[in-house]
Design brief:
mainly alpha, 2 strands
Length: 388
């Protein structure tokens, strides 16, 4: 382990901003923990259905404020994407080649998930598992993929949106919500915000790449202004307090994104900018940086397989015969929350098994026997440490 830590640290270019990688790793881990905490699979009368503790325990709503970290991911994505495209242009790399390389790294691991779950769905249906159960599990695994589609579209549009001021897509979100909720416009209009809402932090990240790191006053302005706007929208404009969807709720802040979700995301982006200094000091330590690098090295694998890991543990738990608390029971009380916290390490072990089996679809190997950590030849700010 010490040798691996030393190799990762020595292979990192000195001008690489390690805090950016740390933000990406934290945003992915936030999504994973958030899903594990607010997603329940209830076994009842031979079927499995989805539920959420936020539906029964609204006092847990602050969990969604901590673990709904998608805005930070899009902030980092915009910063890295804009820098990457600028570097590609400087090297004379064609847009198509640049985009193809990024899409391959983004969607290569998705194929494995789709194949495995297509086979699993067929096996379950053939063995007599109810269609409702299969649909519940399939939706749970595939629903996070919307995020990849949006991120891919914004990445492809980087040459067009890299110079767009974040206030323009924010204005689009504002007017869409005004027409949706104030003038009863068609519901389909809200899906405009699926692009505009996440374009706000993406453009903020691209502006960071183009003009340099924003100062702390900018971070405080985003944190305080976005937070105050989000609180006002929840208290006086009728938006739900949860920053994730809650079954049975009339409005979801995430599906599609609302103005409340976007202002909350701006507050998160401000907090991320304020944390850059402390994070840099933290990951200057080789051991801390090695942990961040390893998470980033398998970020897509972790994201794509974390729901499968939870489902696998839930399915194996059914062999116990009786419903297990926090795993198969309704999330309707504090007991479920305590039991679910106890299950999190088990989910993590299952995810480690999935990572061992499928990480090769994300990690490109260097020549066998080279015995070194490499960067795939990309610019220092974009390259990801790869394990040989």
């Amino acid at each position: 382990m010490r040798e691996l830590i030393r190799r990762i640290d020595s292979a990192t270019p000195p001008d690489r901003d390690r805090a950016v990688d740390t933000l990406r790793a934290l945003s992915i881990l936030g999504v994973v923990l958030g899903h594990w905490l607010v997603t329940a699979l209830v076994a009842d009368s031979g079927t499995v259905r989805g539920a959420s503790p936020l539906q029964f325990l609204p006092q847990l709503t602050p969990i969604s404020w901590v673990f709904q970290t998608l805005a930070v991911f899009f902030l980092v994505g915009g910063q890295v994407g804009a820098r990457s495209y600028a570097s590609a242009r400087a090297r004379g790399t064609a847009y198509g080649k640049w985009l193809g390389a990024r899409m391959a790294r983004l969607f290569g691991p998705v194929a494995a998930v789709l194949v495995v779950w297509a086979v699993a769905a067929g096996v379950m249906l053939a063995s007599g598992v109810g269609l409702d159960t299969v649909q519940t599990l399939f939706k749970l695994v595939l629903s996070p993929l919307w995020f990849l589609l949006v991120f891919a579209a914004l990445t492809a549009a980087t040459p067009l949106v890299a110079r767009v001021h974040p206030l323009w897509p924010l204005a689009v979100v504002l007017y869409v919500d005004l027409f949706r909720f104030g003038f009863e416009a068609p519901r389909w209009l809200g899906w405009v915000n699926l692009a505009a809402g996440w374009l706000v932090p993406y453009c903020l990240g691209a502006r960071w790449a183009r003009r340099g790191l924003p100062g702390r006053p900018t971070g405080w302005a985003l944190f305080a202004g976005g937070g105050a706007a989000g609180v006002c929208l929840v208290l006086w404009a009728g938006y739900p307090a949860s920053m994730v969807g809650v079954p049975g709720a009339g409005i979801s802040n995430l599906n599609p994104p609302t103005l409340a979700a976007v202002t909350f995301g701006l507050a998160q982006c401000g907090a991320a900018l304020l944390l850059l200094g402390p994070l840099r000091r933290l990951v200057a330590r080789p051991a801390a940086w090695a942990a961040v690098a390893l998470v980033n090295m398998s970020a897509m694998t972790v994201f794509l397989w974390h729901q499968t890991a939870m489902i696998a543990v839930t399915a194996l738990g059914l062999l116990a015969g009786a419903p297990l608390p926090g795993l198969h029971t309704a999330p309707d009380g504090p007991g479920w929350v305590l039991a679910r916290l106890a299950w999190l390490p088990v989910f993590a072990v299952a995810l480690l098994v999935c990572w061992t089996a499928f990480r090769t679809y994300e990690q490109r190997r260097a020549p066998r026997g080279s015995g070194r950590i490499v960067y795939e030849g990309r610019p220092a700010q974009e390259a990801t440490v790869r394990r040989v």
